[in-house]
Design a protein that fits this description.
Order of helices and strands: HEHEEEEEEEEEEEEE
Mean pLDDT: 90
Strand order of the largest sheet: 1-2-3-4-5-6-7-8-9-10-11-12-13-14
Number of strands: 14
Helix content: under 10%
Oligomer: single chain
Strand content: over 45%
Structural class: mainly beta
Largest sheet: 14 strands, antiparallel, barrel
Number of helices: 2
Distance between the termini: 64 Å
Low-confidence stretches: 1-31
């Protein structure tokens, strides 16, 4: 008499198990499979000043707006080839999705190969809920040539190559506040490590600021960003070299994105950055100095298909300083394309 209830219970359990497996495999709420994708990009640019190209390129919010630069009396024109490849792995989650990506990008100068460099990035973006996502990123730019400069460590003020390797850790928390407004909190920590001739310039820095994206209309999005950054150099108390590159930085960026139709979109961005050096060392040329940069960017994009896009852009930068010898202007014209597969 006890065998029937036991057999019935066993049958019900097996049926329930098969029902759960069937709902997971064929039910409407079954999670999608993880996906691999990649984006290959090639951009070719003409610049009026090869010394400023890398710094001007990275002035964008998503790049490195405080990358140092050397202002030279020479203004060599050049054509730069910028290949890039990004590989992404997207996994659906209960909250949304998790997207892990790795990207490598190069800059190859036609006439000034000493400026050739690479940029490596690993990034993870994941959802906390349907309205909130988090992005964490590590970026590495090794042995970037800034230009020839006067070193101070030997006391001879000989001209040496100034190079820097940069490590950045970045985090963003993005939340959809309304149907048309998205807010993002940006924070960043970084290390800059110079070659031995300029080791007193080794700098640790942190960045903090908000970004607001407002979709004013279906075809118009407006973006406003503010960033504050503080950098502290190893030489900030070293009177021997009197070479303190410590600073604080304010940056404001405003952009508009026009969706002209299904294939064409047009973006405009204005960036203002003011970098004030905080050195108080006697004999240091950084004492009382600031650099103010204005940059405008216009980019036109044509979506040939869901996978292929071509783009054309113009970028103009103007920098003024308390040291007039460090003023400059530069222009960059770029044409390129990307393909997602």
């Amino acid at each position: 008499m006890m065998r029937y209830p036991h057999s019935l219970l066993s049958t019900l359990c097996r049926a329930a198990l098969w029902g759960v497996l069937a709902s997971l495999m064929w039910g409407p709420d079954r999670p999608a499979q993880a996906e691999w994708s990649a984006v290959a990009e090639q951009k070719t640019s003409y610049t009026t000043d090869a010394f400023q190209f890398s710094s001007a390129r990275r002035l964008r919010l998503t790049e490195d707006p405080s990358q140092p630069t050397v202002v030279s009396a020479d203004k060599p024109e050049d054509v730069i080839w910028e290949p890039a490849l990004e590989v992404m792995h997207s996994t659906p989650t209960a909250q949304g999705k998790n997207e892990l990506s790795v990207k490598a990008q190069g800059a190859i100068y036609t006439n000034n190969p000493i400026f050739n460099h690479a940029d490596y990035r690993i990034q993870d973006r994941f959802s906390l809920d349907r309205a909130t996502s988090v992005m964490v990123r590590y970026r590495y730019v090794p042995n970037l040539f800034l230009g020839p400069n006067f070193e101070r460590r030997t006391g001879t003020r000989s001209i040496q190559e100034e190079r820097v390797s940069s490590h950045h850790w970045r985090a963003e928390i993005e939340r959809r506040l309304t149907d048309t407004v998205t807010g993002t909190l940006i924070t960043r920590y970084g290390l800059r490590r110079y070659n031995d001739s300029f080791a007193e310039r080794n700098t640790n820095f942190f960045t903090l600021g908000p970004r607001v994206d407002y979709r004013a209309m279906e075809w118009l999005t407006v973006t406003l960003t503010y960033l504050y950054e503080r950098g502290l150099a190893d030489g900030h108390k070293d009177t021997q070299f009197a070479d303190d590159v410590s600073y604080y930085l304010h940056m404001v960026s405003a952009g508009t994105e026009f969706r002209l139709n299904r294939q064409w979109d047009l973006g405009f961005t204005y960036i203002h950055r003011r970098k004030t050096f905080t050195s108080g060392l006697a004999g240091d040329t950084h004492v009382g100095r600031f650099d103010a940069t204005h940059q405008g960017i216009a980019e036109l994009r044509y979506h040939m298909s869901a996978a292929a896009t071509v783009m054309l852009s113009y970028q103009y930068g103007q920098r003024t300083s308390t040291n007039v010898l460090r003023d400059f202007q530069d222009s960059i014209f770029s044409i390129g394309g990307q393909y997602r597969f």
